[in-house]
UniProtKB/TrEMBL annotation:
Role this protein plays: Catalyzes the interconversion of 2-phosphoglycerate and 3-phosphoglycerate.
Keywords of this entry: Glycolysis, Isomerase
Lineage: superkingdom: Bacteria
Listed Gene3D superfamilies: Alkaline Phosphatase, subunit A, Metalloenzyme domain
One Pfam family, short name: PhosphMutase
Catalytic activity: (2R)-2-phosphoglycerate = (2R)-3-phosphoglycerate
PANTHER family for this protein: 2,3-BISPHOSPHOGLYCERATE-INDEPENDENT PHOSPHOGLYCERATE MUTASE (PTHR31209:SF4), COFACTOR-INDEPENDENT PHOSPHOGLYCERATE MUTASE (PTHR31209)
The family this protein is said to belong to: Belongs to the BPG-independent phosphoglycerate mutase family. A-PGAM subfamily.
Pathway: Carbohydrate degradation
Domain Metalloenzyme: 1-368
Listed name of the protein: Cofactor-independent phosphoglycerate mutase
Length: 402
């Protein structure tokens, strides 16, 4: 049996007045999802963000991978370090380091206009050179998602409070700067970096072109080396991830899932959807379990533009779910698919929220319950609600879902 999990990141949302009290998932035309729901689907709701944890993709994806995030959270930095092929030593701490755009001390853009890999890489190299000999490594990742690795930091990083920059869009920076042990150290580093970036030709060009400059670095999600229980011994399946996002690949690698790279996978609306679908189907020839992760709905939600989110969900249905399910059924007669969000990303607040999200399971051994569509409402109307999100994987892999 082959199992494919398709994740539309941040796809779930709340009803919006401007959409006549419907959600973007209800408004977007999603014939493929609706067909799965009505023909053979089992719908339900799941809480992937346990109370008291941060509503973020890493928390959600740990739950989805069958791990309780309250007991298994190595931090965003260390997980992305794994994805970049870096092994942290016990003396090292990794921070996720965003390139961001600030204006008048407000967080304008947590992605610095989706800065290109090339520009981001050059800015990170400039920092590496500037901070030489201060036990800090600036490691380029993808676009605005980079890493700061500190060796034996001169403060207790476990007590340091940092904030994800996408949670404070449009807000003043000052209250959210690193606080507690190491706070001043990091703020000093941020100020030095900002002075260097202000003069940098890359930013002058970006401003000239009307693009958001990378005029600040923002450290968060710090942690030591990640150690997570492996997927294969728990579920008896080997697997892989297809994703443009380091955190998904990183958690996957940390639990032993192969990270399949796809050329042109950007994590945005211009991503190579067909290439990702093809990579997932190919992956299932080597493994029995695969994750196909699409970031675009989340990015669209953070922009606050409902039309963009509806477009991202429409593409997700038409260019990912449709072709993936049809190829899955053709290639593997014994197969099952689960489609879900990972968490809600609210268009209204432009942030992640911890409320339960809908999922849909269809395929071999699944007895459908015939909902007309796939949405927050139809999934909520079903009886199936998993309060402990890390039990969902077990449910998905059950021999029979009746
Ligand atoms: Zn997410």
């Amino acid at each position: 049996m082959k199992y494919l999990l398709i994740i539309g990141d941040g796809m779930a949302d709340y009803p919006l007045p401007e959409l006549e009290n419907r959600t973007p998932l209800e408004v977007a035309p999603t014939p493929n999802l609706d067909r799965l729901a009505s023909e053979s689907g089992r719908l339900g709701m799941v809480r992937t963000i346990p109370r008291g944890t941060m509503a973020a993709s890493d928390t959600a994806f740990l739950s989805i991978m069958g791990l309780d995030p309250r007991q298994n959270h190595p931090g965003r930095g260390p997980l992305e370090a794994i994805n970049l092929g870096l092994r942290l030593t016990d003396e090292e701490v990794a921070f996720r380091l965003n390139l961001v755009t600030q204006d008048e001390k407000k967080m304008v853009d947590s992605s610095a206009g989706h800065i290109s890999d090339g520009e981001a890489g050059r800015l990170m190299a400039v920092l590496q050179e500037h901070f030489q000999g201060r036990r800090m490594r600036f490691v380029p990742g993808k676009s605005y998602r980079n890493l700061l690795i500190m060796e034996r930091p001169p403060f207790d990083w476990r007590k340091l409070v940092t904030t994800p920059p996408h949670d404070i869009l449009g807000r003043p920076l000052t209250p959210y700067l690193p606080k507690g042990p190491g706070g001043e150290f990091l703020i000093g580093m941020m100020e030095e970096a900002a002075r260097i970036f202000a003069e940098h030709p890359i930013n002058r060009t970006r401003i000239d072109l009307g693009e958001n400059p990378a005029n600040l670095v923002w450290p968060w999600g710090q942690g030591g080396p990640a150690q997570l229980p492996a997927f294969q011994p728990r579920y008896g399946l080997t697997g892989f991830t297809v994703s443009a996002v380091d955190i998904v690949k990183g958690i996957g690698l940390a639990v032993g899932l192969e990270a399949v790279s796809v050329p042109g996978a950007t994590g945005y609306l211009d991503t190579n959807y067909a290439g990702k679908v093809e990579a997932a189907i190919e992956g299932l020839k080597r493994h029995d379990f695969g994750v196909l992760h699409v970031e675009a709905p989340d990015e669209a939600s953070h922009s606050g533009q409902w039309r963009l989110k509806v477009k991202a969900i429409t593409d997700f249905d038409q260019r990912v779910v449709g072709p993936a399910v049809s190829a899955l059924r053709t290639e593997f007669p014994e197969s099952r698919v689960m489609v879900m969000a990972d968490h809600i990303t609210s268009l209204r607040t432009r942030t992640h929220t911890p409320d339960p999200i809908p999922f849909l399971i269809s395929g071999t051994g699944v007895v459908g319950r015939g909902a007309a569509t796939f949405s927050e409402k139809t999934a909520g109307a079903g009886r199936r609600y998993l309060r402990e999100g890390w039990r969902l994987m077990e449910f998905f892999l059950r021999p029979e879902i009746t």
